[in-house]
Design a protein that fits this description.
Blueprint lengths: L11 H6 L1 H39 L2 E2 L8 E2 L3 H8 L2 H17 L2 H13 L6 H13 L2 H11 L6 H9 L16 H26 L3 H9 L4 H28 L4 H6 L11 H11 L3 H27 L5
Antiparallel strand pairs: 1-2
C-alpha cells in the first residue's frame, strides 16, 4: 500500500501558501510582536533615542542652552580620565560606596532574615517595622538624620549633656571630610537594608522545610543549616541583588546631594553629583554627558561580569 507523505514547505512562497505554517506564524510570531510593539516604540523614544543623544552630546562642547553643540570628539573623555582630579576622587568615593553597600546591608539583611524566618507569631509586625524606612521619601529620611546628627541638638549633644562632657559625642559627622561619606552611607543603609531583608526572607520561606528536617537528622547545627541549606536556596536572589546594588552604587545621588551636596571639600562627591554640578551649575552639559556615559559603561561592565558567570554555570 502506498503511503502519501506530505512534503514540508521549504521556500518562503511555499510556506505562505501552506495554511498550517501561516497559522503557526500568526500565533507564535505576528501576534506576540503586535502586543509588544507599543512597549518597544515607547522604549525606543523614551530610552534608546535619548541614550544615543547623550552619547553624541558627550562628544561635543555644549553649554546646555543657547549655542549649538560643537563636536570635539574624545576631548571630554581625555579631560575626564587624565586631567580632572575631581572625577578621580568622585570615582574613588563611588567605589568605597559600592564596597560599603555590598557588605554591611547584606550582612544585616541576611542575619535578620534568618532570625525572622524562625518567628511564628508577630513576624509580619517586625517585617513591617523594619521595612517602613524604605518607603519613606529620601528628603524625609535625610531631614530626620541631619537633625539626629546635629552636633548642637542631636543624639551626640544629648549624650554629652547626659554624661557631663563637651564635644565628645557631639561631632559634626556630616561636616568632617573623614566621616562625611560613610555617615551618608549609614543614613542610606538605614533606609535600604530592610528592603534586602524582605527579599531574602521571602526567598528563605520558599525553601522546602524537608531540607531543614534532613539537615537536623544529620546533626547539623544552625550555622551548618544556614551554610548548606539556606544559602544555596537563596543564592540566585542574593547574587541578583549583589549585581543590582553594585549598579545602584554608581547611581547614588539623592542622599548625598540632600545631605552635603558632595562636600565638605568634595569629600562625599560621587560621579552623579559631579555630573549634576557640571551640567546645571557650571553649564558644561557636554562634559556632564561624558560622565553619564562613564556611569553607563560601569553598569554595563558589571552586567557583563554576571552574564559571563551565568554562562559558566552560576545560578544567577
Amino acid at each position: 500500500m502506498a503511503v502519501l507523505i506530505q512534503k514540508k514547505p521549504t521556500t518562503i512562497l511555499e510556506k505562505f501558501n501552506d495554511e498550517t505554517w501561516r497559522r503557526k506564524f500568526l500565533r507564535n510570531v505576528l501576534i506576540p510582536w503586535l502586543f509588544i510593539s507599543p512597549l518597544l516604540i515607547i522604549h525606543l523614544f523614551v530610552v534608546a533615542v535619548p541614550a544615543m543623544q547623550g552619547v553624541y552630546m558627550s562628544l561635543t562642547d555644549w553649554k546646555g542652552v543657547g549655542q549649538n553643540a560643537q563636536f570635539i570628539g574624545l576631548e571630554n573623555y581625555q579631560e575626564l580620565f587624565f586631567e580632572d582630579e575631581a572625577f578621580g576622587k568622585a570615582m574613588g568615593n563611588n567605589i568605597a560606596w559600592m564596597i560599603f553597600f555590598l557588605t554591611v546591608p547584606f550582612i544585616l539583611a541576611l542575619f535578620c532574615a534568618t532570625q525572622l524566618a524562625q518567628v511564628k507569631r508577630g513576624g509580619m509586625l517586625y517585617r513591617s517595622i523594619l521595612f517602613i524606612p524604605y518607603v519613606l521619601a529620601s528628603v524625609v529620611t535625610v531631614t530626620i538624620w541631619k537633625n539626629l546628627l546635629n552636633p548642637q541638638r542631636g543624639i551626640g549633644a544629648a549624650l554629652d549633656s547626659l554624661l557631663g562632657v563637651e564635644d565628645v559625642f557631639g561631632v559634626a559627622f556630616l561636616g568632617r571630610p573623614e566621616s562625611a561619606l560613610m555617615s551618608i552611607a549609614f543614613i542610606d543603609n538605614w533606609h535600604f537594608w530592610g528592603f534586602l531583608m524582605i527579599l531574602f526572607l521571602a526567598a528563605m520561606q520558599a525553601i522546602p522545610p524537608v531540607l531543614y528536617d534532613a539537615a537536623k537528622i544529620d546533626g547539623a547545627n544552625r550555622w551548618q543549616e544556614f551554610r548548606h541549606v539556606t544559602m544555596p536556596g537563596i543564592r540566585p536572589v542574593v547574587l541578583f541583588m549583589f549585581m543590582m546594588v553594585a549598579i545602584w552604587s554608581f547611581l547614588a545621588f539623592d542622599y548625598i546631594f540632600l545631605s552635603t551636596q558632595g562636600g565638605p571639600g568634595g569629600a562625599s562627591e560621587v560621579i552623579a553629583t559631579l555630573l549634576y554640578k557640571n551640567a546645571f551649575f557650571r553649564f558644561e552639559a557636554g562634559y556632564g554627558a561624558a560622565q553619564g556615559v562613564v556611569i553607563s559603561i560601569f553598569a554595563g561592565f558589571i552586567i557583563l561580569i554576571f552574564v559571563t558567570l551565568r554562562r559558566r554555570g552560576w545560578d544567577i
